[in-house]
Amino acid sequence: MHNKQCTLKCNEKYLTVGEPQSCSPETGEWIGAPQLCKLTSCGDLPRRIDEMTNGYTCTDSNRLNSQCRLRCRAGHRHNNGKLTKCDQDGNWEFGSQECEKIPECPLNIEIQGDGITFCNGNKPGSTCDVDCPFGYALEGDSVLTCSKDGDWIGNATCIEPWCDPLGKLTYEFNIIFIHSRC
Fold first, then answer.
1. Percentages of the chain per state (helix, strand, coil), in multiples of 5
2. Could you give the CA distance from residue 10 to residue 16 in angstroms, rounded to a whole number?
3. Which domains are delineated in the chain?
4. Helices (H) and strands (E) in the chain, counts
5. For residue range 108-151, what is the model confidence (pLDDT) as tens digits?
6. Which own/partner contact pairs does 29-35 have at CB distance under 8 Å and 24+ positions apart?
7. CA distances (Å), origin 86, targets 42, 96, 152
8. Does the pLDDT at position 28 exceed 80?
9. Contact call for residues 58 and 68 (beta carbons, < 8 A)
10. Cα distance between residue 91 and residue 160, in whole Å
11. DSSP-based three-state secondary structure for 132
12. pLDDT at position 118, please?
């Protein structure tokens, strides 16, 4: 038993703390404080990869008190729910976070009066300029904006030109003039 060393081997999620113990050649007793296993992590976070999510980004890997946020794929956004956390007991506390599809505004926008739109996209924040046929007047907004909920904000109508019914007729130099407002 002389000159023997005892080293503690800790399980996953734990770290060995302290120096290995030695056996005294004179007394045959262990020398030094015993080593301890100290909890340091929560182990591996379960993979979460699907059509909306692409794993996690963590503040300190899988160590105690690390917080992990879902990574959302393109076209999706984080719902700002509670993050996943490695608690003091070495367990993952799963939060209420999710990835959700970013709403898109419809591509086909009908403007009453045969108006047309020129858009720079259909994601939230995108805009569409409204144009009316020649001679028509635009009533309402000349620019529509895609909201974060996937709806176009703004209202536009193209108003067809109109004329008063035939007004009075006047003659000058044998030419007939029809007075109308158009």
1. 0, 40, 60
2. 6
3. 5-39 (no CATH), 53-101 (2.10.70), 103-182 (2.10.70.10)
4. 0, 19
5. 999 999 999 999 999 999 999 999 999 899 999 999 999 999 99
6. 30/6, 34/8, 35/7, 35/8
7. 6, 15, 42
8. no
9. yes
10. 68
11. coil
12. 96
Measured CA to CA, the distance from residue 70 to residue 81 in angstroms comes to 10
- Confirm if 13 and 42 have CB atoms less than 8 A apart: yes
d(CA 64, CA 95): 16
Instruction: Tell me how far the alpha carbon of residue 173 is from its chain's centroid.
Output: 74
Q: Does residue 180 have a pLDDT over 80?
A: no
Residue 77 CB partners (closer than 8 Å, separation 6+): 99, 100, 102
Per-residue pLDDT tens digits for 38-73: 888 888 888 888 899 999 999 999 989 999 999 999
